[in-house]
Please model this.
Amino acid sequence: MDFPYPCLMFLADVDRVSAKTALGVAYWRPDACVGQLRLPGCEVDLGLSDMTPGAAKAAGARSLLIGVANAGGFIPPRWEAVLIEALEAGLDLVSGLHTRLASLPRVRETAERLGRRLFEAREPDPRFIVVGEGVKRDGQRLLTVGTDCAVGKMYAALAITKDLKARGVSADFRATGQTGIFIAGSGAPIDAIVSDFVAGAAEVLSPAAHADHWDVIEGQGSLFHPAYAGVSLGLLHGSQPDALVVCHDATRAAIDGLESFPTPSLAEAIELNLRHARLTNPAARVVGVCVNTSRLSPEAAADYLRDVAAELGIPCCDPVRTGVAAIVDGLVAA
Model:
């Protein structure tokens, strides 16, 4: 999808977890961002200039991108005035939420009147609406999985793809969520696909390839999440991963927003993901762990990564702090 970049990033009034789309796009595609627009109560600062839609248009922005990934993917009524102001300033709208922009009468009518475009990243391409077959495909695939949502599965997949390409290895990042699609420009919005077709969509997303090519597939949700485990399982089966990387937040004790569900141990996550992955690829293996250590001091982070690697006997990295070279070393050598 050819998104109209650069954009004004709309952070609304959300917390850091719900702003993961804005954070991801700003980190991986800084060229796509002109500035940020925050409402009172917003807990996030991307380090970009705060701008009105009019000022952003004057600075070269072509769109306002809703940089929010809130639970349920909805657009509350209090945001509509900003969306309309952006349209009136000459900006298109870009959204990755479940609420369709065109389903909001005032937004739709304003866009139609002014000839502005409404872009929806969670509108699945019809080619992804197929039933999975479970037939093994040529090529190699790596899937990132997690102990919870928003623990860095996309960051890990992008970092691994970047490192593989830097070594001259044929590799593609395969986006499965709105943030990844905004960064890569293509992908399958897995959580917007009817459950019967999730595995099939993953098969289409990572088609047969030559033997030494790697498709690095962005994971979604977690097998341990009571709401989103189904998405994770379908993606796991359809991806048929040869390699798994387990992602984790070093400071999260419970599933985000569901305090009665403790975060599983990394050993539990490895065991459960392998058990399910081996339905469609009996040779699936875990090749590393990626940990978000952003809330730890540098010293505590180094100790944490070292201790996990020693306990599990596999590389343990923070994609942002340390890079993923240790994991990619194993992929290249295998």
Summary: The longest helix spans residues 298-312. The first strand starts at residue 7 and ends at 12. The CA atoms of residues 175 and 187 lie 5 Å apart. The two ends are 34 Å apart (CA to CA).
